[in-house]
């Protein structure tokens, strides 16, 4: 099996779930899901940027990408794709951890900065989900291109990370110009959330997938997946990739990227990629 191993670990933590603005299952609010030059530019301008102390005069810097300070030096950059709740506190906490623990800068495009951007409470129809995924993938592509305009970004150490809704974009990105992918809280398989996984991952690409064994959305524990052969992780999808790792947490929560054991595994993975 190409996936290095599947770890079962114990833990418990509360989490964020589906979209922020809708009220009950099946509800949507807003109408806009169309990628446009203006919309993509807005998601980038309002992106949450975190610079490590070494790049920011000895003190970590946080703010919007449009307000980025002048930087001297070079560093790896992680493009972080948030879940359906937007650039939530968990995403910002993860970015701070990347800066303080690994000396990596990170930027999280803000999809919800788009005026009248459609939000939802699951489950909604899969056609709506796929429109969301198309927008998020366009945001990711735009962010990767825009990030290369920053002179301080080490282009050989550009990494993608995504959680939940954002993880779909990270998994589907078909470019070969990134050093690694981190896929949190999505299972890379056919489930209620997609018409098909449509992964763009290369055959020998470094990938870390971390997810709860009983994830409330993407495991077989969710009745929305009852008619699908859901296993609940990316292990099957990544089985032939010798550089892929899958970590399954013995838990029922969704948002896990800040759990201590997930951080430890993520740190080892990223150090192997960024400092081989």
From TrEMBL:
<protein>
    <recommendedName>
        <fullName>Dienelactone hydrolase domain-containing protein</fullName>
    </recommendedName>
</protein>
<dbReference type="InterPro" id="IPR029058">
    <property type="entry name" value="AB_hydrolase_fold"/>
</dbReference>
<feature type="signal peptide">
    <location>
        <begin position="1"/>
        <end position="21"/>
    </location>
</feature>
<keyword id="KW-0732">Signal</keyword>
């Amino acid at each position: 099996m190409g996936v290095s191993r599947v770890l079962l670990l114990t833990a418990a933590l509360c989490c964020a779930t589906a979209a922020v603005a809708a009220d009950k299952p099946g509800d949507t609010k807003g109408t806009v899901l169309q990628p446009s030059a203006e919309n993509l530019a807005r998601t980038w301008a309002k992106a949450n940027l975190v610079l490590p102390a070494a790049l920011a005069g000895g003190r970590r810097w946080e703010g919007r990408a449009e307000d980025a300070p002048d930087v001297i030096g070079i560093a790896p950059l992680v493009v972080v794709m948030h879940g359906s709740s937007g650039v939530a506190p968990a995403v910002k906490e993860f970015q701070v951890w990347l800066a303080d623990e690994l000396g990596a800068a990170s930027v999280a495009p803000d999809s919800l900065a788009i005026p009248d951007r459609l939000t939802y409470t699951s489950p909604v129809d899969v056609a709506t989900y796929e429109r969301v995924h198309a927008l998020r993938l366009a945001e990711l592509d735009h962010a990767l291109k825009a990030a290369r305009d920053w002179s301080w970004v080490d282009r050989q150490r550009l990494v993608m990370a995504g959680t939940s809704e954002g993880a779909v974009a990270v998994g589907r990105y078909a470019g070969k110009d990134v050093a690694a992918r981190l896929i949190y809280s999505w299972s890379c398989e056919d489930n209620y959330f997609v018409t098909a996984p449509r992964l763009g991952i290369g055959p020998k690409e470094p990938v870390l997938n971390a997810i709860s064994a009983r994830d409330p959305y993407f495991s077989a524990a969710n009745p929305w997946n009852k008619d699908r052969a859901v296993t609940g992780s990316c292990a099957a999808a990544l089985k032939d990739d010798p550089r892929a790792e899958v970590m399954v947490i013995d838990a029922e929560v969704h948002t896990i990227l800040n759990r201590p054991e997930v951080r430890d595994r993520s740190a080892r993975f990223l150090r192997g990629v960024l400092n081989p």
